[in-house]
Design brief:
The protein is α/β, with parallel strands linked by helices. Helix content is about 40%, strand content about 25%. The protein contains 14 helices and 13 strands. Helix 6 runs parallel beside helix 7. The longest helix has 22 residues. It is globular. The protein starts with a helix and ends with a helix.
Length: about 375
Amino acid sequence: MIDIDRILDVAKQKDASDVHLICGIKPMLRIRRDLIEYECDAPLTEDDMYEVYDYFVRGNVDKDRVFKETKKLDTSFEFEDIRLRVNISLANEIPILTMRLIKNELPKYEDLGVPDIVRRMTYQPQGLILVTGKTNSGKTTTLNALINEINENQNKKILTLENPVEYKHKSKKSVIVQKEIGAGRDCLSYSDGVKNSLREDCDILVIGEIRDKETMEAAIETAESGHLVIGTLHTKSCAETIDRMVNFYEIRDQQQVKYLISSLLKLVISQRLLPSKKGDLVLVPEVMVVDNIVSGIIRKEKISVSEIEDAIQSNLEKGSIGLINSIAELFVNDVITLEQAKAQIEEKNIETLNRTIMQLKIKREKEHKINQ
């Protein structure tokens, strides 16, 4: 018999980010990006996997039906003082589980390494702010730290749409309503939740994931009607984010959508997490503040990635931060190695990285001399 509570307790003690339960192997814990085998007598059996399934579904008829119909299930679960984001799917017709451990206590916004311009942009009365990055890049943590920052400092009604709800917020200076997406939950889909938000008198709408055209359309409509919309997208750069937004639409509709995006989009932060020399994870941000130059590039018939990257680089005084600048800064500050820095960019940009590193070092030397 599998002792799930014991596995979760060990994962919590070792500060694991994820737990993987797969038939035929021992439980695996992801600790600082590495997969570590859980110490137990034998690999997981088929019976173990169905026992784990029953443990998390808990006889919920709606959840069981969703899993049987779609062969996947996303749900949340509370274990002691942490929350779990649980994904159940099938492999060889046997359930497998991936669990993300979420600490109830959010890190402070200033401790995340997210540039302050992102926080300042939440004071915009309307528009669209996007937090982007690949899986496991810390998007959810950044998003919830932003929500908490608004909650503590602004008098707003915040409506969040999540699948599942990960961090539970308590209303402070703001009023917070959190809704879970899915069959048998608060809203059937993200797009349904976004559309209904127009009738709920919210000031700020937070969309856990914009994953289809319908949700994107509803988000744009909400921003257009005078709300601030904050959402996430699975993209690896600011330029790719624009491309992804436009490509949700048919070619015949794209030019009109570009005009809407160029007027409503306020800021995109694309983030990555890298292991530092100390062994912890450090945030690498790329930030694009949408000014007249970026808006003009978005409206062009063909969007140029290099033009957007150049616009970010030339807009540093307004708060934009280029990826190469972020990487160079971390290297000069002795947080990451040169090999790590080079691995994050394309070969054609290595020379630019080296030049940026040299410029930062010269700048530091001048500042050091002035302060002596």
